[in-house]
Write a structure and sequence with these properties.
Elements lengths: L2 E6 L4 H12 L4 E8 L3 H11 L3 E4 L5 H7 L6 E4 L1 H7 L7 E4 L7 H9 L3 E4 L2 H18 L3 E3 L2 H10 L6 E8 L17 H5 L8 H9 L1 H14 L6 E5 L5 E7 L4 E5 L5 H9 L30 H12 L3 H17 L7 H12 L8 H18 L1
Helix pairs in contact: 2-3, 4-5, 5-6, 6-10, 6-13, 9-13, 10-12, 12-13, 12-14, 13-14, 13-15, 14-15
Bound molecules: magnesium ion (MG).
The site of magnesium ion has 4 residues, from α7.
């Protein structure tokens, strides 16, 4: 029986690679829903190829164009962000791949869990912002979530079949494009510098997050919720070759690592094939070509975002939501050349000190925290 999937964010980096996986596994995966924010041209192409039941173009400006293009294809076309939260509840879907960018993933993920859909989580911000609500809801609805993020997929692959006796996890980080830069040179970083990741080819937002190492900070919080860990059980180590995707150390001191060439298609496929593994023709690792796998401590002076993320996690409540919203606004401002690279952590820290703290937030509190933080950081810019 194939899995019937919805891909939220089908035109982004994870979305297009999920469709590559679907293309290679036509007996295993049937595409039922595709959603995109504004890349209507690619959405139309994807819809014609994969013949989903429905598509959503969130940006209403492009609705008519998509509708006209798919006329005669027997594909329902919807528009608006609310439509995304509705289509995930369709009866013919059993699995939702959440591959949209940032905070926008929260509401549709909640709706999908409420409708009992299996979640392949690529939108880490959902867990960063509201990890407590999501984990409670998963338990309540008996819904399973598999991680797409390569580090979390690695940890998941290491613990499958193990008694759950984790001493700690070791999240690997490539260190990003500025790992070897001198701190003084980091004042002049341009978006073009920051978008050039050494190992991974990713979307703009996550590329900047990798350059500031906020991505690793968000992943620390994501890991806390996915695997139910305490802060002292989550370690970050820089591993520039990105071959070991993360490791787990068990109660007896034994360490398992999951390895492979950096290719997001593998964790995407595993999130969909679990508990099975499907055949793939992804490039294989040749150890002779990687004589040196190296490891080093992250430089927290150069990358204060990592420390801010640990602080937000420690504080709990709505603090990770403040961190996330401030980061989203700051990253966008940096990409638009309105602020310097090293202003990103400065703005985030100001938001963490300036926004009202809520100890046990409800969903409504998270929404207002997000709105409040966005306007606060925007006003500083
Ligand atoms: Mg990752």
């Amino acid at each position: 029986m194939p899995k019937h999937i919805a891909i939220l964010g089908s035109t982004g980096s994870i979305g297009t690679q999920t469709l590559d996986v679907a293309r290679n596994n036509p007996d295993e995966l049937t595409i039922e829903v595709l959603t995109a924010n504004s890349n209507y041209e690619l959405l139309i192409k994807q819809a014609i190829e994969f013949k989903p039941n429905a598509v959503v173009i969130a940006n209403e400006q492009h609705y008519q164009t998509v509708k006209d293009a798919l006329f005669n294809h027997d594909i329902k076309v919807f528009t608006g962000t609310d439509a995304i939260a509705q289509v995930v509840q369709m009866d013919n879907i059993d699995t939702v791949v959440t591959a949209m960018v940032g905070y926008s993933g929260l509401k549709p993920t909640i709706k999908a869990i409420e409708a009992g859909k299996h979640i392949a989580l690529a939108n880490k911000e959902t867990l960063v912002v509201a990890g407590d609500l999501i984990t409670k809801l998963l338990e309540e609805k008996k819904v399973f979530m598999t991680p797409v993020d390569s580090e979390h997929s690695a940890i998941f692959q290491c613990i499958v079949g193990e008694p759950f006796k984790i001493e700690k996890i070791i999240l690997t980080a490539s260190g990003g494009p500025f790992r070897t830069w001198h701190k003084n040179d980091m004042a002049n970083i341009t978006p073009a510098n920051a978008l050039k990741h050494p190992n991974w080819n990713m979307g703009a937002k996550i590329s900047i997050d990798s350059a500031t190492m906020m991505n690793k900070g968000l992943e620390v919080i994501e890991a806390k919720w996915l695997f139910g860990l305490a802060e002292e059980q989550i370690e970050v180590i820089v591993h520039p070759q990105s071959i070991i995707h993360s490791m787990v150390q068990f109660a007896d001191g034994s360490i398992k690592a999951q390895m492979g060439l950096p290719d997001m298609k593998l964790p995407i496929q595993y999130a969909l094939s679990f508990p099975d593994r499907w055949q793939s023709d992804f490039p294989r690792m040749d150890f002779a070509k990687f004589a040196n796998l190296t490891f080093e401590q992250p430089d927290i002076e150069k990358f204060p975002c990592l420390t801010l993320a640990y602080q937000a996690m420690r504080k709990g409540g709505n603090m990770p939501a403040i961190l996330n919203a401030a980061n989203e606004i700051a990253v966008e401002a940096f990409l638009n050349e309105k602020i310097a690279f090293m202003q990103i952590p400065v703005l985030i820290e100001k938001a963490m000190n300036g926004i009202t703290f809520v100890n046990t937030p409800t969903y409504t509190d998270y929404v207002s925290t997000d709105t409040e933080t966005r306007s606060f950081v925007s006003s500083l810019i």
